[in-house]
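Renewal narrative, Specific Aim 1. Our central claim is that a sequence can be written position by position from structural information alone. The example that follows is taken directly from our test logs and has not been curated for this report. It begins with the structure tokens describing the chain, in the order in which they were read.
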């Protein structure tokens, strides 16, 4: 199995774990999950991310998500109300996911659990955006990006940097996001 094939299985596993917890994985979820998988767990996926509109973005992640769909591991469909793309797993993807090594599978579960905990607290973490899981994924990955690239754990400095980059997240509870991110260490 090639490294690329492992990443495609990782995408399927991330979607499956999210769905098992009642989350609605979409392209933003995959972008942020792959970013955190690489950056928080230190597992080199060969994905380069840079600051963008909805937090760290990687053209590599976008391409790999499309490849996972092309290979039949996931399906993507447009939201009928126009709010992004829904992602589902396939039977083929679920079968192939069994080929993931135990350490990777454990990390997928750990990451999905952090997203799930954040989702349960969405009204407290993002009081102005209770309707949007995508904003929550954006916030979590953006806070991690700032913490890593600005080399600071000071919540005040992270909040200031977040507001410069993303003023629409002014109500975000940065302290709680930092607590959740500690679970990935």
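The sequence written for that structure reads:
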């Amino acid at each position: 199995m090639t490294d690329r094939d492992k990443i495609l299985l990782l995408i399927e596993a991330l979607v499956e774990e999210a769905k098992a917890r009642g989350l609605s994985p979409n392209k933003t979820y995959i972008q942020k999950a792959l970013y955190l998988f690489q950056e928080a767990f230190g597992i080199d996926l060969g994905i380069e991310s840079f600051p963008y509109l909805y937090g760290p973005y990687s053209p590599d992640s976008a391409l790999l998500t499309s490849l996972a769909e092309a290979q039949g591991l996931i399906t993507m469909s447009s939201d009928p109300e126009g709010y992004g793309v829904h992602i589902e797993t396939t039977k083929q993807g679920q079968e192939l996911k069994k080929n993931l090594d135990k350490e990777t599978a454990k990390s997928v579960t750990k990451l999905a659990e952090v997203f799930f905990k954040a989702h349960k607290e969405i009204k407290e973490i993002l009081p102005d955006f209770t309707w949007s899981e995508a904003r929550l994924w954006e916030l979590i990955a953006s806070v991690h990006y700032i913490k890593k690239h600005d080399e600071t754990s000071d919540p005040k400095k992270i909040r200031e940097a977040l507001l410069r980059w993303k003023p629409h997240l002014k109500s975000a509870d940065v302290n709680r996001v930092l607590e959740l991110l500690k679970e990935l260490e």
